[in-house]
Amino acid sequence: MKSTNVTAAKKYAKAMFEVLTDAKELENGYADLIELRKIFAANPKLIDILDDIRVSDDQKNHC
């Protein structure tokens, strides 16, 4: 992962942690992240599709 992506990921992770903590949904949020991790592990090319600018947003929503 590029350093700019790591920096952005850290910012989003911190914001997500704060929102989930404030909403008292930290455990549910963690469970959701575990499920996402499973999905990406089972479908390694999914990130390439989601990252590809040639694939329209509508197509990405139907993956």
Structure description:
Its main location: membrane. One of its GO terms (molecular function) is proton-transporting ATP synthase activity, rotational mechanism. One of its GO terms (cellular component) is membrane. It is found in: Membrane. With about 60 residues, this protein is mainly α. It has one domain (about 5-60). The chain has 4 helices and no strands. The longest helix is centred in the N-terminal third of the chain and has 20 residues, at about 5-20. About 0% of the residues are buried. The model has no long low-confidence stretch (mean pLDDT about 90).
Low-confidence stretches: none
Gross morphology: globular
Q: Given the helix and strand composition, which structural class is it?
A: mainly alpha
Task: Calculate the terminal CA-CA distance, rounded to whole Å.
Answer: 23 Å
Number of separate domains:
1
- What is the number of beta strands? 0
Q: Order of SSEs, N→C?
A: HHHH
Report the helical percentage.
over 70%
The main sheet comes to:
none
Sheet-strand content, in percent, reads: under 5%
